[in-house]
């Protein structure tokens, strides 16, 4: 009679899924060890403040642990699920009263992209065809798309922040989206 050897070469995603099913806390340790940096980077695209981004990551890890049973492999990979939760949590944070108050205390120049920040962002997302297409937009449209879709601003917040009429913001975003649709 042959003994069945334990499977030692499980891929990390399968291990994490198994730990989730077993409610084993090692799951979160593995998530943090193998996906934490990618999750933090996804959060930092939206929240530039490193300490706030780390706080959001901690909240995301708790949320992942509490909602592990809701993960459905048929809808996408574990990595995709983790990144989506991270981005949503970052956007939720930017809309929180606490974050809005802290942002109001800062000067507007802290939120305007400078050349170095654009260069870093381009470097990080160079292979992302959506980002490359956004960069082809005129500056007046690109700035609005970045604020609305990458930083989580509402159109009304953009209008107030840049001191542009709300109708102008809506028109520029709509025009930019029409241009982006032509690329895809």
Give descriptors for this structure.
184 residues; mainly alpha; Rna Polymerase Sigma Factor, Chain: A; Arc Repressor Mutant, subunit A; 2 domains; 10 helices; 70% helix; 0% strand
Tell me about this structure.
Helix content is 70%, strand content 0%. The chain has ten helices and no strands. It has helices at residues 12-21, 26-46, 50-66, 78-94, 97-104, 115-124, 129-135, 139-150, 155-162, 166-183. Helix 1 (12-21) crosses helix 2, helix 2 crosses helix 3 and helix 9 (155-162) crosses helix 10 (166-183). The longest helix is centred in the first third of the chain and has 21 residues, at 26-46. 18% of the residues are buried.
Tertiary shape: elongated
Largest sheet: none
Distance between the termini: 59 Å
Q: Remind me, CATH topology of the largest domain?
A: Rna Polymerase Sigma Factor, Chain: A
Please count the beta strands (DSSP E, at least 2 residues each): 0
The percent of residues in helical segments reads 55-70%
Q: Could you say how many structural domains there are in total? A: 2
What is the CATH homology-level superfamily of the largest domain? RNA polymerase sigma factor, region 2, helix turn helix motif
Compute the CA-based radius of gyration.
Answer: 20 Å
CATH class of the largest domain: Mainly Alpha
Strand fraction:
under 5%
How would you classify the helix and strand content by structural class?
Answer: mainly alpha
Q: What oligomeric assembly is this protein in?
A: single chain
Mean pLDDT across every amino acid position: 80
Helices, by number, come to: 10
Note the run of SSEs as H and E.
Answer: HHHHHHHHHH
CATH hierarchy: architecture of the largest domain = Orthogonal Bundle
């Amino acid at each position: 009679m042959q003994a069945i050897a334990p499977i030692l070469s499980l891929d990390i995603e399968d291990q994490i899924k198994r730990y989730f099913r077993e409610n084993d806390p090692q799951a979160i340790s593995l998530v943090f060890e193998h996906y934490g940096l990618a999750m933090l980077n996804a959060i930092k695209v939206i929240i530039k403040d490193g300490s706030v981004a780390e706080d959001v990551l901690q909240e995301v890890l708790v949320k992942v642990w509490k909602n592990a049973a809701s993960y459905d492999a048929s809808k996408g990979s574990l990595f995709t699920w983790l990144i989506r939760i991270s981005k949503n949590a970052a956007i939720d944070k930017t809309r929180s009263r606490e974050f809005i108050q802290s942002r109001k205390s800062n000067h507007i120049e802290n939120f305007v992209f400078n050349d170095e920040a654009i260069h870093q962002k381009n470097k990080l997302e160079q292979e992302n065809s959506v980002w490359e297409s956004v960069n082809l937009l005129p500056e007046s449209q690109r700035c609005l798309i970045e604020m609305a879709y990458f930083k989580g601003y509402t159109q009304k917040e953009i209008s107030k922040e840049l001191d542009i009429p709300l109708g102008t913001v809506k028109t520029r975003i709509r025009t930019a989206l029409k241009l982006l649709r032509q690329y895809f």
